[in-house]
């Protein structure tokens, strides 16, 4: 009888290092939002990849940065919590940015948090630099920390990702699978739907607003024809933000709703009827309930 394997792999790195892109590449489905904005991953989203007889459960932690607000502090605490609980840690570094002060701070913290957990270095976006620079960066980073393995990849284009997945499949411990074979994420569909809408909001709104809003799936109705009706509320922190999210004559929210509905329907493989409302909730950034919905601990944000 073939021995199965299963384990958790934490993806850590600076904001925008490509963690969500790598997660989606490994899992083969979109389970974590990917945008050009930093700090978009709030919850510790788990994506599940099957490789041979191994089940690899990815924990996509929020990007680690210097926290200022309560939400930021909770996100950073969640990131290190995800690393501490993992069987393998992957540190993502952007090839063209190299060993930044932020990356050095993460490496310093790894010495405290990693313990005996294997840590692999994953240099991402290798298509942006020349091979000589890649080699020099790899040597510099391996001199800064004793990495178990080094991988050079492009999460966006897929270069090197198969080798990384093969290695992880052998690295996770022997044991029964943790989830059904056909499951790609342990998030409920209500939260995945909210994340998809939040991604579209983030892409459309280029100002500070994306970090001052959240999306909640208020109702989910399964219809007899196989479609789903999804009602969501976009909460903004200030009255002035509501008009920006709605847009002139409701144009902005309509475009966001269409984009979110199309992606959600593709993800689920069936028709979706999506209805969005925008409401002002000035103190949502200080409400424990919102943090619980994002998989964050409200108390971790205490200064």
UniProtKB/TrEMBL annotation:
The keyword Plastid does not apply. Residues 124-127 are annotated as: G4. Keywords: Cell membrane, Cytoplasm, GTP-binding, Membrane, Nucleotide-binding, Ribosome biogenesis, RNA-binding, rRNA-binding. Its main location: cytoplasm. It is a peripheral membrane protein. Residues 153-155 are annotated as: G5. Residues 5-174 form the Era-type G domain. Residues 13-20 are annotated as: G1. Residues 205-282 form the KH type-2 domain. GO terms for cellular component: cytosol; plasma membrane. One of its GO terms (molecular function) is ribosomal small subunit binding. GO terms for biological process: ribosomal small subunit assembly. GTP binds at residues 13-20, 60-64, 124-127. Residues 39-43 are annotated as: G2. It is found in: Cytoplasm; Cell membrane. Belongs to the TRAFAC class TrmE-Era-EngA-EngB-Septin-like GTPase superfamily. Era GTPase family. HAMAP family: GTPase_Era. An essential GTPase that binds both GDP and GTP, with rapid nucleotide exchange. Plays a role in 16S rRNA processing and 30S ribosomal subunit biogenesis and possibly also in cell cycle regulation and energy metabolism. This is GTPase Era. It comes from Paracoccus versutus.
């Amino acid at each position: 009888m073939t021995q199965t394997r299963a384990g958790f792999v934490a993806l850590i790195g600076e904001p925008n290092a490509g963690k969500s892109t790598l997660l989606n590449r490994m899992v083969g489905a979109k389970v974590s939002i990917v945008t050009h904005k930093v700090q978009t991953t709030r919850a510790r989203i788990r994506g599940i990849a099957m490789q041979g007889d191994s089940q690899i459960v990815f924990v996509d932690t929020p990007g680690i940065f210097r926290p200022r607000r309560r939400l930021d502090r909770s996100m950073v605490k969640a990131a290190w919590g995800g690393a501490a609980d993992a069987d393998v840690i992957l540190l993502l570094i952007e090839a063209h940015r190299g060993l930044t002060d932020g990356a050095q701070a993460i490496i310093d913290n790894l010495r405290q948090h990693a313990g005996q957990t294997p840590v692999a270095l994953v240099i991402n976006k290798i298509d942006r630099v020349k091979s000589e620079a890649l080699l020099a960066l790899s040597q510099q980073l391996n001199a800064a920390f004793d990495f178990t393995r080094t991988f050079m990849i492009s999460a966006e284009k897929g270069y090197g990702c198969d080798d990384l997945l093969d290695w992880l499949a052998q690295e996770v411990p022997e044991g029964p699978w943790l989830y059904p074979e056909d499951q790609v994420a342990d998030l409920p569909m209500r939260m995945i739907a909210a994340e998809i809408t939040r991604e579209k909001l983030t892409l459309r709104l280029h100002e500070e607003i994306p970090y001052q809003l959240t999306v909640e799936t208020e109702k989910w109705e399964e219809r007899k024809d196989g479609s789903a009706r999804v009602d969501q509320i976009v909460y903004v922190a200030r009255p002035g933000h509501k008009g920006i999210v709605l847009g002139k004559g409701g144009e902005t929210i309509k475009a966001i709703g269409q984009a979110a509905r199309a992606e959600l329907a593709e993800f689920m493989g069936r028709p979706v009827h999506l209805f969005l409302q925008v409401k002002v909730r000035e103190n949502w950034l200080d409400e424990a309930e919102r943090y619980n919905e994002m998989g964050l601990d409200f108390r971790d944000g205490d200064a």
